Amino acid sequence: MTARLVLIVTSPRVPAGLLTYDAWTALRSGVVMTRDQDHPHRDALAAAGVVTEAVDPSHPPVAIARLLLNVARESGTAVWLAGPGGDDDVAHALADAGVQAAERGEQVDLEVIYGSWDVPGARLLDVVTTMDRLRSPGGCPWDAQQTHESLAPYLLEEAYEAFQAIEDADGDALRDELGDVLLQVAFHARLAEEAGEGERWSIDDVAAGLVDKLVRRHPHVFGDRTVSGADEVVANWDEIKAAERAGKSAVAGVPMAAPALTLAATLQSKAAKLGVDAAAGDLSELLAAFLADPDAETAGALLWATVEAMRARDVDAEAALRAKARAFRDHVMTAEDAGFAS
Question: 3-class secondary structure for 291-321?
Answer without folding.
Answer: HHCCCHHHHHHHHHHHHHHHHHCCCCHHHHH
